[in-house]
Amino acid sequence: MTVVAIVGRPNVGKSTLFNRISKDNSALVDDLPGVTRDRNYARVSWNDKPFVIIDTAGFVGQDTSAFEELTREQILLALDEADILLFVADAKTGLHPGDAELADLLRRSSKPVFYAVNKIDGSEQRRHAAEFFELGLDRIYPISAAHGFGISELMDDLCAAIPEAPAQTAEEEESGGAIRVSILGRPNVGKSTLVNHLLGAPRVIVSPVPGTTRDAVDSHIVKAGQEYVLIDTAGIRRKGRTREKLEKISIIKALQSVERSHVVVLLLDAVEGVTDQDLHIAGYIKERSRACIVGINKWDAADKDPKRTKRFMDDLHDRFRFLTYAPVLTFSALTGRNVARLLPTVKEVFRQYNQRVTTGIVNRALEETLARHEPPQAGNRRRLKFYYATQTAVRPPTFVLFCNYPQAIHFSYERYLTNRFREAFGLDKTPIRLIFRPRQRTGGTS
Ligand SMILES: Nc1nc2c(ncn2[C@@H]2O[C@H](COP(=O)(O)OP(=O)(O)OP(=O)(O)O)[C@@H](O)[C@H]2O)c(=O)[nH]1
Ligand SMILES: Nc1nc2c(ncn2[C@@H]2O[C@H](COP(=O)(O)OP(=O)(O)OP(=O)(O)O)[C@@H](O)[C@H]2O)c(=O)[nH]1
Fold first, then answer.
1. Is this complex scored with an ipTM above 0.85?
2. Which of 1, 31, 152, 365 could pair with 424 in a Cys bridge, judged by C-beta atoms 3.0 to 4.6 Å apart?
3. CATH code at 306?
4. Please, what is the Cα angle at 151 between 149 and 153, to 5 degrees?
5. pLDDT at 218
6. Greatest CA span in the chain, whole angstroms?
7. Are residue 103 and residue 249 in the same domain, yes or no?
8. Same-domain check for residues 323 and 339
């Protein structure tokens, strides 16, 4: 998945541009309820090119007192991890020394960079925009993120730089019947230790210093006749940076790994608990409808007081309640205790993720579900009616339900249907998707 990062000085309009690009293309991101909207990355599609767009401001916080340092860090991060850079400057303030410095850094990159000058909403700003040619750039895109001016020219050109044909299908074929698994989690949570344990030999360097593993490599293993590909086994860190920065950086890599996975193992630290970043990754897993297992590592070091354990688990379920389908496992990658449960669980989750249900069974379940709890009235006082349903896809199991007023279905009724389908089809450990369609008339008679 191509990652496009928006970079620029504070207050130039990065977030506004991010919102415009992601909002105008919300088809792909909006069809899943209950996922947090408060975030700085989005999967969008422009001219049929899917990509992930990231507002880097979110990675460095709002501490403007140290903004030069922060901005530099942000640029380096984006240069490292993104595929395309989108530089934004502010025509209202005009050319700023910081812009020149950033442009300099970007010019040294081998990645495509698009330079936009924002806040072009009047003739005065247009004059200011000309100043930016002093940066020695071939092409500058005058835009107004707030009003939409110039956005399509910019995005059309940017999308042309995104490679055709996502590698997804090729990769799918290549991996045959293998289950693609990624192990994600913040630095020091024990990813390398776990991978080494699974591989049965210390192939990945483990160290108590965060960020000691480098290159992205996939590892193949066969257990009990099932092949697994551990994606990006080297993990999601960088050498020689502070822990705090590392945690901010890792999200881009994490998102890319989610894209490539069937099943994501989200590792948490039993001692440190759940962080916002864990929830961010979890939100993305949900949004991308990937199967997931929550692995609580370092269980050997956890406080075994039953009350605390209960509080930990309650808190976990509460914070991951949008991901109820993810089984939770506790283990210790260090001692190996209970790690043996992981791959069988991955296999079971994957089985459900690929499950097919015949149309007859789907419709029987639909009938029973409706009989048990009638659909509420649609807004226009007409009765909401479901006609029939059928499974249209796997990974995840996806069901299309034909009804008279798809737009009138309340979220709570959708949740009810989802839960009943899960129960009826034994799909408790996989995401499933329900799509509501207006009934299509066939044949052209009557
Ligand atoms: N006039 C005008 N104002 C804009 C435009 N785009 C953004 N702004 C304003 O510029 C200000 C900063 O916008 P943000 O999108 O928050 O900028 P940012 O670069 O994300 O800022 P940081 O998060 O501080 O780095 C806001 O008050 C926006 O309303 C535009 O096209 N025209
Ligand atoms: N007590 C305990 N320590 C563990 C366990 N798993 C890993 N550790 C320790 O945690 C530290 C970090 O482990 P790593 O496997 O390097 O963690 P990582 O997630 O790969 O870390 P980064 O390279 O920073 O991303 C090491 O000192 C491990 O020995 C566990 O199950 N129990």
1. no
2. 365
3. 3.40.50.300
4. 110
5. 76
6. 73
7. no
8. yes
Q: Domain range spanning residue 29?
A: 3-160
Type of residue found at 154: L
Verify that 137 and 204 share a domain, yes or no: no
At 303, the pLDDT band (50, 70, 90 cuts) reads confident
Sign (positive/negative) of CA torsion 144, 149, 150, 154? positive
Q: Identify whether 91 is part of a domain.
A: yes
Distance 150 CA to ligand 2 centre (A): 48
The pLDDT tens digits for 384-415 are 889 999 999 999 999 999 998 888 888 889 99
CATH number at residue 374: 3.30.300.20
Residue 445 falls inside a structural domain: no
Ligand nearest to the CA of 145: 1
How close is the Cα of 16 to the center of ligand 1, in Å?
Answer: 6
pLDDT by residue (tens digit) across 200-256? 755 454 444 444 443 446 777 888 888 898 887 654 333 334 444 444 545 677 788
The structure tokens listed for 75 are: 């640029």
The answer to whether the annotation marks 12 as part of a ligand binding site is: yes
- Pocket flag, ligand 1, residue 145 (CB < 6 Å): yes
Pocket perturbation via mutation, ligand 1, pick of 16, 39, 59, 75 by most ligand atoms within 8 A of CB: 16
Instruction: Give yes or no: residues 348 and 364 share one domain.
Output: no
Cβ(142) to ligand 1 under 6 A?
Answer: no
**Do 193 and 61 share a domain, yes or no?**
no
Task: Supply angle C-alpha 410, 324, 58, rounded to 5.
Answer: 85
Q: What digits encode the pLDDT tens for the residues 318-353?
A: 999 889 999 999 999 999 999 999 999 999 999 999
Contacts of 317 (CB under 8 A, 6+ apart): 328
Q: Tell me the residue type at 159.
A: C
Rounded distance, CA 141 to CA 91, Å?
A: 11
The domain tally of the chain equals: 3
CB 427 within 8 A of CB 355: yes
- Point out the domain boundary residue: 137, 160, 183: 160
